[in-house]
Specification:
2 copies of one chain form a homodimer.
Chain A (H helix, E strand, L loop, with lengths): L1 H10 L1 H20 L4 H8 L3 H13 L3 E4 L2 E4 L1 H30 L4 E5 L7 H18 L5 E4 L3 H9 L4 H4 L2 E4 L12 H12 L2 E2 L10 H9 L1 H11 L3 E5 L1 E2 H7 L4 H10 L1 E5 L2 E4 L4 E4 L7 H6 L2 E5 L6 H10 L4 E5 H9 L2
Helix pairs in contact in A: 1-2, 2-5, 3-4, 5-16, 6-7, 7-9, 15-16
The first copy, chain A, binds a DNA duplex through helix 3 and helix 4.
DNA sequence: AACCGATGGGACATAAAACGTCCTAGCAGC
DNA sequence: GCTGCTAGGACGTTTTATGTCCCATCGGTT
């Protein structure tokens, strides 16, 4: 069943919206017993005319009966509602979750795909697909898009296809090398995205673990500086979110820092910053590229991460308060709600 | 799965059409490998602009890739097509069948519901629902609608609901009493339909098994004559279709006539006439009401019958050649095709 | 190398559908 | 009989879908 809905969501995204709407109307009529058009419109927060369209449809298909005293569901409609119950639970589940999280963290948009990326590689693909779709929808012309590394971001890259606005865009790594394996480094992902979409890219080649003086001298380098300025002009940031300790380990952070992180209660990592439960920054990786203030003024910040194990981490980053769009999966979404 | 599609078919009939269309387009692109818009439009019998709308959609959702040399399905699209296969088989199965039967017997419209009315009472309900929907769609204002008896017709009556044009309509029995049990007699059904829709009705009370002189004297009766003339002015006929032998038995036809029927190869019964395999009339029940010539000039003749066991009978009546719309179920439809 | 045909994409007027808004007659319960 | 609902009609406006061209471009063929 879920697969059918997924297919339909992919082939006709509006479809499920209409289904939700019709169901809501029908269901509301049933609950109300007998109700009038205007009253119903008010209660459903629809305009009278739109509701009327639905009413006409439902009536013409014999799902409701209309009398002078108001509308009521017909026997056929009642049976339909009953049969729909499990289906609607499925359809609504995710969209309800989306709306809950969206309003809880004051986001612009939340997209949830079904499943758990921790256990299902299919869900991972879905996550990549959804991320790619969100990116495609938000990009306009000649945008600069900063991306981070990680397997989720790689998943997005693999699902991207070309489109007119994407073709003129620039893909850049959000920050310098952060010690991941090559195929998951931001540089690699930026270039792959550019390749997939027909867009352009610029890379930021800086070694990890810079000492203060090396850092300063690199910043003096005109070519490096020029690229960093370019990166900081980005309109869109797409980034993954990780568990703080796992990320620290993967990046081979030294023991002392790891201890500090642990003590500070670091839970999550995103674009090189570590966040505690309350969303406060407790540590920063010393590398070039986008800084916190850049994130804050970036027009569209898109976070993509899934899997039950990442739920808490995602909640932390959301609490940080500068995300605009979140793409996640069902398992993580349920965790996020728990940690609200 | 089938249930989900049934629900959706009921709640949003257009969307399955959209699904079919999008699938067809996508599938065709895959089969063609790389193809241009105009060529594709020609091959799919769509206008260029409409196809373009679909193309834009498919592209914006990353299901196809567009290059200067033409369009091709993306990896994502390919996966979607693969996943859709069983789904589409289900969705298309019926509509394909519909079209096959429609063109085979030169009908105006064929509606097929899923299942087998012989075995599933749910399919029987669906059949009634579909019949009611077809009737509702075809009725205009103040129509005279002649109906026959039978359990299928009773099913339609039970699913009818009121609507503006139906309210002004007249329901009449197509022919006089044909020896069924009361709740399945045409008279009963006509009055129930009127009750359900808010329409009006007139009944035709004539005894069964009329002798020739009684027949003649009844015809002289002004009130009877008046009603019969009224019935014959009908614009719409809705009738069931039965197996000849079963109907003969149910109506307690005498042994001699039964033997005659058998010898003449009677297969099907509809509105009091018996048809053989080729669709020729081999017997006629002696009662008042609509005659064959009336059926022939009636604007809309709607036949409703389902169940595998009735397939052959339905095919016979269709071959008779004066049906306009057929409402049946999947099992019967498959039989009908076999007997073409 | 030049040409031809098919390609995607842009543009625009028009038809059609969706929509917001207001009005009216009628029925139900008080 | 009055009040507050009800459904349904009407109409102008806005948005969307559609038919119909045109054009620059790319690929393959001559």
């Amino acid at each position: 069943m879920r697969d059918i809905l997924e297919i339909q969501r992919q082939l006709m995204p509006d479809f499920l919206e209409v289904m939700k709407k019709r169901y809501t109307v029908l269901h509301h009529i049933m609950v109300s017993g007998s109700i009038g058009r205007r009253t119903l419109a008010l209660s459903l927060d629809m305009t009278e005319r739109v509701l009327r369209g639905e009413i006409d449809f439902l009536k013409s298909h014999g799902l409701i009966e209309i009398e002078a005293s108001g509308m009521s569901v017909s026997e056929v409609g009642r049976q339909l509602l009953e049969r729909m119950e499990p289906l609607i639970k499925e359809v609504f589940g995710l969209t309800d979750l989306e709306e809950q999280i969206r309003s809880a963290f004051n986001l612009k948009q939340v997209v949830i795909v079904a499943g758990d990326a921790d256990h299902s590689s299919f869900t991972k693909r879905e996550l990549g697909l959804a991320g790619a779709a969100v990116l495609r929808k938000n990009v306009t012309n000649d945008d600069i898009i900063a991306v981070t590394g990680g397997s989720t971001m790689a998943g997005i890259a693999s699902q991207l296809v070309t489109s007119a606005p994407l073709k003129g865009s620039w893909f850049v790594p959000a920050r310098g090398g952060l010690g991941e394996s090559v195929e998951m480094q931001a540089n690699t992902i930026a270039s792959e995205m550019a390749k997939k979409t027909g867009g352009q890219y610029r890379l930021l080649h800086v070694p990890d673990d810079l000492g203060e003086e090396a850092y300063q001298s690199l910043m003096q380098e005109a070519s490096i500086k020029e690229i960093i300025d370019f990166v900081r002009k980005c309109r869109i940031v797409v980034h993954g979110i990780g568990d703080a300790m796992i990320m620290a380990k993967r990046r081979k952070v030294d023991l002392e820092t790891t201890a500090n992180l642990q003590q500070a209660g670091a839970l999550a990592e995103a674009f090189g910053y570590y966040f505690d439960r309350s969303g406060a920054v407790v540590h920063k990786m010393p590398t070039l590229g986008l800084q916190l203030e850049d994130i804050q003024r970036t027009e569209i910040v898109i976070g993509v991460a899934g899997g039950k194990s990442k739920g808490e981490a995602i909640a932390s980053v959301l609490r940080f308060g500068h995300e605009d769009i979140l793409v996640t999966d069902e398992a993580a979404a349920n965790e996020i709600i728990k940690h609200f």
